[in-house]
Amino acid sequence: MTDRNGGGSRLDAFWRLVRLAASAVATSLPLGMLSFVIALLVWVAITNEENPSIRRTLVQEIPVEQVNVPRSLLPTDVTPSKVTIIVSGPRNTVNDVRPEDVSARVDLSRADDEVAGSREGVVERPVRVEVRRRGVRAEPSPEMIKVTVERQERRSVSVCVDKVDVPPPGFSIEEPVTVDPAEVVITGPRRNIETVECAAAALRLTGLTVSVSSQTPLEARDASGRAIGGVTVQPATATVTARVRQDLFPKQVVIDVRLSGRPALGYSITGIRPEPAVATIVGPLEAVRGISSVATEVIDIEGARSDIVRAVSLQIPPGISSGERRTVVTIGLQPVRAPGSIGVTPRVANIGAGLTVTVSTPAVAVLVSGPLAEVLALKPADVIVTVDAAGLGPGTYRLEPKVTVPPGVALESATPDRVEIVMGPAR
């Protein structure tokens, strides 16, 4: 409250002086001017007490910008490149100053006169500081900086293409890759442009599957491919044209024989053999990658009873070519061997004179194997089971039977393995 009242009394005194000065001007000009000066001094004192002037050093240094650089020169070193800024003025305004409100510049106009035709020279210039805040003054530290300038030179270099990465599998870049223009002009200090081998245009091949023609930035590079700074390339871009070719890949795949129908009853397939057994296909990588076999046209084997030999075409997928268009297929067939059983009444041979025989074993189970059709067609009359009674007198005997089966049928076993007969005198 005291400060407020004090400020109010000082303002009241100031306005009284203003009114006094106005009255004095009306009566006497010298007295009026004196009163006005006294009033102004009071106002300055009041203002300075309310918002005093201060000095503050910005925490962040400000980079120095070079302006009005002659076209024939290139700044290569600025010492120092940043300056400390001290701002002064009303406290409220100075405290609001930020580094982005301040700019520092050096004017390099007429620097070419100071270099006087030399390739390189050093000029000293004062730092000019601007603050985007009303009523704030700024002082740089240091106030003077040294700028090294080099005379820019020009020469023509060729445009080269830097192929980055590789194209996807199955694709390649046709040579040559063309650029337009083939030559450009580079500008810069002699020590820089003398190391430039070419202006490189980077061509990225990753994922490239179609031909391209595009504007590409150019970069000055030395013979090792390193970028050279401080060099300007004109024009800054070139049109790079690259033709992409889809490569063809060979691949060997098996031949898949396709059949329809079934052999005759009692026959089975023993083997299928194509000749050749593999085919070489040629096509784009993505197309041949998923192919493991090629099929033949369908061969009908319905009701077949003997081997089949047939020349058939291969079904080559679209977009794929092959040197093998046909193959010869051999299909082996043979009768199916199956087991079978049949009951047969045994016979007695070589019965002695005056004797009779009674067969106690009514039937023998004969187990056979052979072609299914023949086994299925087998009848009891086709199988002969006999026992030999030669030299035997009256009595009971267990004799081993002899079993005879038709040709093509194999005897596996006979059960029982003994046939019981009873021999006695004839009545």
Overall description:
The structure is a single chain. With 427 residues, the chain is an alpha+beta fold. The protein has 5 domains: 2-50; 55-142, RNA Polymerase Alpha Subunit, Chain A, domain 2; 158-246, Beta Complex (RNA Polymerase Alpha Subunit, Chain A, domain 2); 252-335, Beta Complex (RNA Polymerase Alpha Subunit, Chain A, domain 2); 338-425, RNA Polymerase Alpha Subunit, Chain A, domain 2 (Beta Complex), CATH 2.170.120.30. It has 7 helices and 33 strands. It has helices at 2-27, 29-50, 91-94, 111-115, 190-193, 285-289, 372-377, and strands at residues 53-57, 62-67, 73-79, 82-90, 102-107, 120-126, 128-131, 137-141, 144-164, 171-180, 183-189, 198-204, 212-221, 232-234, 237-246, 248-256, 259-260, 267-275, 278-284, 293-296, 299-300, 308-315, 321-322, 326-335, 337-344, 347-349, 355-359, 364-371, 384-388, 395-399, 402-404, 410-415, 419-425. The strands form 7 sheets. Strands 3, 6, 9, 10, 11, 12, 13, 14 and 15 form a 9-stranded mixed β-sheet that branches. A hairpin with a 7-residue loop joins β12 (198-204) and β13 (212-221). The longest helix is centred in the first third of the chain and has 26 residues, at 2-27. The termini are far apart. Mean pLDDT is 87; it is low at 1-7.
